[in-house]
Amino acid sequence: MKQPKLWWFLSTPQLLLDEQLSLQSQEQQQQPQVLCSSEGQRGPYVVQANAAAHAAGIRLGMPAVSASTLVPELRQRDYDAKREAAVLHRLAQWLYQDIAHIALYPPQGLLLEVQHLQLLYGGYQGVQQQLQRRLRRLAVNVVLAAGYNPLVARILAQSGCSLLSAEREQLQAALARVSIASSLLPAQQQQQLQDAGIVQLGDLLRLPVSELGARFGRAMISYVAQLRGELCPPQQYFEPPAKFRERLDLLTEVASWQQLLFPLRRLLQQLEAFLQSRQLSVTAFVLLAHHRKETPTRVRIAFALPLWRSRDMQQLVQLQLERQRLTTPALELSLHADEFSERQASTSNWFPNKQDVHYRQQEERQLQRLFGKLQARLGEAAVQQAQALTDWRPEAAQSWQAGAEPALSAKPEVTLPRPVWLLSEVEPITIQDWQLHWGPERIQSGWWDGHPVDRDYFIAIDSEQRQGWIFKSQGAWYLHGWFS
Amino acid sequence: MAHPLQELVHKGWVWQGREAAEQIAPEQLQDTGWSDLNRRLGGGWQRGALHEIQVRQNFQGELALLLPTLRAQEKPCLWVNPPAQPYWPGLAYQQLQQAPIWLHERDTKQALWAFEQALQSEALGAVVAWFAELDSHAVRRLQQVAAKHEQLAFVITPWQTHSEARSYVNRLQLEWQQQQLQVAVVKRRGGWPLPAAPCGVTQLLPKRRRLSA
Question: Belongs to which family (chain A) (predicted)?
């Protein structure tokens, strides 16, 4: 026989407000705050309120007008279901570190499949502890309820009944006490049930199924079957996105990048959780400061080495932002990352003569760290390492790499003398000023890519006794490099 | 208040003989590759020190002078604001072991910051930096960092007209005369300045013989 599945439903009745509170200072959190929704016809009313607002006598469902009359210093903000759903998504991502099967019930609920986790975390207690450990790090009010069916768990949690039990009888008893108003049935059917004198789910469950079907239609049969645990509709499980997109409401206008560093820390923690659950590292991301009207300011942050710990990223981001200026105040901050790499031990070779792999890796990391630090402040192009390419054209025989990638920096094979300096732009010269000492070396190449060269190279000495690398091309002379 | 003499020492106008008498362990000295120069500098370039090389003009032989030093480095070297791009094929031809790292930053303040960071890193074999001029404060600071992290660093700069003191450990002046690179030691550890003497850098460079046209 198949083992009965066990579900938990995590309900977060004031997720959006909790999220906003967690960004505020202790002092701000103590002020009464509410979120008001203007859905429906009766004008804006309170949907979420913090502890201070509750203490001041504000109740959920109260019209916004009476709430502000009751507490004049009340801070009101609009409720936004979409944004709350985004927060929920983030929460799912956070929990995904421990729990593989999560279904989203936006805007305020998550369904967790815990049957398999019991093995992993050592029984029911273990799962509970693990989850609570995770949740404790988030300042979110949750109601967590268990169920032998997703719907049962959901009804219990959303009716505010925190019951974590694996005992079916206990759950059924709790379910029977839930009022029809919390049944999650459509309002019309709730009305019909109440008119028929059915006020609790227990009353409903006692009725014969056939009779219910005849009176309330097929949907009701399936509903009751779910409550009884006879039917379990398939769940659509959350899959972590391959891209990281997070947005943070700053609540006030922020005028400089320096002030954004604190909220940014949260985004980086989320990024760390994202990376950790996938065993990835990030090499670059984009920060966007959203303004009231203007197009968002974009800042690309790149790291010389792949990172995943938020405090490592924090340090480098801080350095990179020191160079940036925010022209207009920002209201929101978002972080977009899609350049990830698998975490792996690097195997490339810096020091062929040193056999100790560990030693080599350490040196390599030190170099990458230096690159990271310098590029963070001066820009990615400011520090580059030469890489040899096989091309006859002198200017194409090396390129500059912004990252320290030791695997690429193989030593070039050179048999003919080459200068230690190369001018980025060749310089026209008067040949009378030069004394030819060695040559010619004919370099004819590049006809295949539209940059053909046809040159005769000489080593020559200028009037200051400096050895230059000069060439003749189509009757004219140019200086291309220096030997000393 | 500091003793007036102390102030002079800080300014670098008065040197303490004690420092000169200190023995330097051989592993702290980097062979310059030129026996004559080694002797004149008391054994070679001192690691954990900043050395100044003054040139009449760029590409005059200063790199040839440093080639043996750069060759000896197992770790890559950083080039700060060089006058042209270092050319890895040419450097490999001169038997350098690691591809050069090029740092270019126009703002002197930022470049100095980067120089200091580079001196602190253990990832580099040596740091060679080009600066038009460095004030005594900057030099003292860089010298301290180089000493603390035992990094070998060179500053290549035009011939200085004034003779104001700087905390470089060695100060050299290069000039090309009589088919030879002449190296004068303007300042050195534990000794008086030395007049110009030829250094055989031409051995490392392509042969000088005029092509018959």
Answer: Belongs to the DNA polymerase type-Y family.
State the Cα–Cα distance between residues B181 and B59, nearest whole angstrom: 12
Identify whether B90 is part of a domain.
yes
What is the value of ipTM here, to two decimals? 0.88
Q: What is the pLDDT of residues B46-76, one digit of tens each?
A: 999 999 999 999 999 999 999 999 999 988 9
Chain A residues with CB under 8 Å of B92 CB are: 388, 411-412, 414
Helix-helix angle A257-278:A310-321, to 10 degrees = 150
Q: Which domain holds residue B157?
A: 26-203
* Contact indicator for B154, B51 with CB cutoff of 8 Å: yes
Nearest to A412 among B59, B61, B89 (CB): B89
CB contact under 8 A, B206 and A353: no
Residue listed under structure tokens 């070297």: B77
Instruction: Give dist(CA B203, CA B199) in Å, integer.
Output: 10
Contact A138, A23 (CB under 8 A): no
Choose from A420, A443, A482 for mutation: most chain B CBs within 10 A.
A420
Q: What percent of chain B has pLDDT over 90?
A: 54
Domain annotation covers residue B4: no
Burial A254-293 (b: 16+ CB within 10 A, else e): beebebbeebbebbbbbbbbbbebbebbbbebbbbbbbee
CA distance B207 to chain A (A): 8
Contact A298/A288 with Cβ under 8 angstroms?
Answer: yes
Q: Give the type of residue at A385.
A: Q
CATH code assigned at B130: 3.40.50.300
Report the distance separating Cα A441 and Cα A417, nearest Å: 10
pLDDT digit string, tens, across residues B143-185:
999 999 999 999 999 998 777 788 899 999 999 888 889 999 9
In a domain, residue B32? The reply is: yes
In angstroms, what CA-CA distances link A153 with A10, A145, A163, A237?
A: 9, 6, 9, 16
Q: Least CB-CB distance to B60: which of A382, A412, A466?
A: A466
In chain B, residues with a C-beta closer than 8 Å to the C-beta of A394 are: 87, 89
Considering only the beta carbons, identify the residue of B75, B92, B99 that sits closest to A385. B99
